[in-house]
Amino acid sequence: MSAVILASGSPSRYATLTTAGITPQVIVSHVDEAAVQDQHPTASVAELAGVLAEAKGRDVLGRITARNAGLLAGAPDRPRVLIAADSILELDGQPVGKPHTPERTREVWQQMGGRTAHLHTGHFLARLDPTGDGWQVAGTRAQTASTTIHTAALSDAEIDAYIATAEPFEVAGALTIDGFGGAFVTGIEGDHHNVIGLSLPLARTLVGELGLAWHELWDVSADAAAHTGDDALGAG
Questions:
Q1: 112: three-class secondary structure by DSSP
Q2: Would strands 185-189 and 135-151 be described as parallel, antiparallel, or unpaired?
């Protein structure tokens, strides 16, 4: 049983948490991102990332607290932490979302290559306490982290090759540093985890504000953490 619910289907966010010792239960939100953005036409790119993260988190919270049968794995025996996030790249003051297509990916890289962009990731966290027959929200925290990214100027051949991998189609700003795209990032100012989609230092801070310790979310007990190999206990 995991102590963390990840309100995102992002493989990168999942991998970031598992590498950090946390295996979350994934519950993907049903939020219409385009509709949420339309409701906030004057929001800055950073504000929009925060709005989307909170919308996704509250969608999943609503489904959990409605006591949908089997939504959370395991019995309610300890607090859980819900983590929702949304990332948007900002270039020239404008949001650059997931390109989805080869054509749009090419346009983004022709505009972005050799320049500086900013990756904003909105974070929304909630503490869920067991009530005996369900869950109640004991607190929420929200904050957006921003990282400055310096990119290389790509040749047409490099853009073609990157497009051929299909990697950039479903990532914010057609860019990721934990794959083929890592070679195209010449420098980062800020938390590199944030570029992948989840700032671990910020998440730790927000978890602390919710009255829990980050290490309590690890998939090892206090005793097992002092050992290695077969002594480590994995959470289900």
A1: helix
A2: antiparallel
- In three-state secondary structure terms, 96 is strand
Q: Is 86 a catalytic residue?
A: yes
Instruction: Show the tokens assigned to 40.
Output: 């906030």
* Whole-number Cα distances in Å, 189 to 94, 176, 214, 224: 19, 15, 24, 35
Q: Which residues make beta-bridge pairs with 4?
A: 81
Enumerate domains of the chain plus CATH numbers: 4-217 (3.90.950.10)
* Catalytic-labelled residue, pool 38, 59, 86, 219: 86
Cα–Cα dist 107/129, whole Å: 46
The string of pLDDT tens digits covering residues 109-152 is 999 999 999 999 999 999 999 887 788 999 999 999 999 999 99
